[in-house]
Specification:
This protein is α/β, with parallel strands linked by helices. Helix content is 29%, strand content 11%.
Length: 369
């Protein structure tokens, strides 16, 4: 009877081969996981049938961005899309993150589809589209705010100016600014209570001699945001270059730069055509996931809101109704246009649904609740 003899050297060699194979498999799995950040996410089949993402876009072409934001009669300058453009180049995985945030938003707002055709995605036609308000059981959403004042003399922005800005935000987002409502327009009955309130959590003053901070988030690096997961941070400084303000969109998952930057001349109630505090309202709209009313795309791109008509470009000044483009009247009085502060007064039901969606379960700003 023969006995089984195991060569110890062969055994060691086989064990090494198995170990190498396991290591190779592990490396392949890790490689696939790392690459997923740059791959368009796969939708669930049932979701894909209900949620159309075919028109989703993020601006990535500097020349196109510059061309589409040069607007008729417009001098207001919001750099939120330019900042997003830069962030996309610096972080290739950002597109995937924002795609997922948009998919969540559309899944939530699908319940508020237009009651009739036309409006934001139509490229023309009926300019007064009815959108149902989506019930979310969130009540009035309160957003606590930290204000960082960064100027050579930080006391040049008074507490009264800070208070006036908080009052404007509360008035605009609750649609209690009734003195701003014009009559005789197609959209006079479309202003809605967005269901937000804002409370001042603290003001921080920093004396800094920097004359121009730009839009590369340098002021945020110098004075980092405080608990951006639960608080909205606003930096007030001299941005330079004629920039009134810029904001970071939700879904980017970069807390170190999350928040809004505003020029001091446009913060709170001051003077001039942009001195009624509406620059902050506009930038908070971006912070809460609203695009420009004209979609930054000359009738070719949309702001993803059904009851805001497609527009060819932004509007400036105080236009006489109707100011028309894309075969329909523009909603020039919307906070997400570029008109003078005294001539903008409204968010729509569709914009309300879109802003509130990011606070629902799984939304990009759910943690703020």
């Amino acid at each position: 009877m023969s006995s089984l003899i195991i060569n110890p050297f062969k055994l060691i060699l086989r064990m090494k081969k198995v170990s190498f194979l396991l290591l190779a498999i592990a490396a392949l799995v890790m490689s696939c996981d790392d690459s997923n950040e740059n791959v368009l996410p796969q939708q669930d089949v049932s979701t894909a049938q209900e949620i159309d993402m075919s028109n989703f876009y993020l601006v990535t072409d500097d020349e196109e961005l510059s061309r589409t934001t040069s607007s008729k009669n417009s001098s207001k300058n919001c750099s939120s899309m330019e900042v997003l453009n830069r962030q996309l180049k610096e972080n290739p995985g950002l597109y995937n993150k924002m795609y997922n945030a948009e998919l969540h938003t559309r899944n939530h707002t699908a319940k508020g589809k237009p009651d009739k055709p036309g409006g934001g995605g139509s490229g023309g036609g009926d300019t007064d589209v009815d959108v149902a308000i989506v019930a979310d059981n969130l009540g009035v959403i309160n957003i606590p705010v930290y204000v960082h004042i960064v100027y050579p003399d930080a006391n040049s922005i008074s507490n009264a100016q800070v208070t006036s800005q908080m009052n404007v935000l509360n008035s605009d987002f609750s649609s209690t600014n009734v003195d701003q409502l014009p009559t005789g327009t197609t959209f006079e009955n479309d202003a809605t209570d967005a269901g937000f309130s804002f409370s001042l959590a603290g003001t921080f003053r920093h004396d800094n001699s920097t004359s121009s901070w730009g839009t590369n988030d340098a002021v945020k690096t110098a004075y980092p945001p405080i608990t951006p997961e639960t608080h909205m941070n606003i930096w007030v400084c001299n941005i330079g270059g004629g920039i009134l303000g810029y904001a970071q969109f939700p879904g980017t998952k970069t807390p170190a730069t999350d928040g809004i930057v505003l020029g001091g001349d446009y913060f709170g109630v001051t003077s001039g055509v942009y001195g009624a505090g509406r620059t902050a309202t506009h930038e908070v709209g971006h912070y809460l996931n609203l695009r420009h009313i004209w979609g930054d795309g000359r009738c070719r791109q949309d702001d993803f809101v059904a009851d805001t008509p497609t527009a060819g470009s932004s509007n400036g000044g105080c236009p006489t109704f109707p100011s028309s483009s894309c075969k329909s009247a523009d909603m020039t009085m919307n906070y997400m246009d570029y008109t003078y502060d005294a001539c903008m007064y409204m968010f729509t039901d569709g914009q309300r649904n879109r802003m509130r969606a990011i606070f629902t379960s799984g939304g990009a700003r759910e943690s703020m609740l």
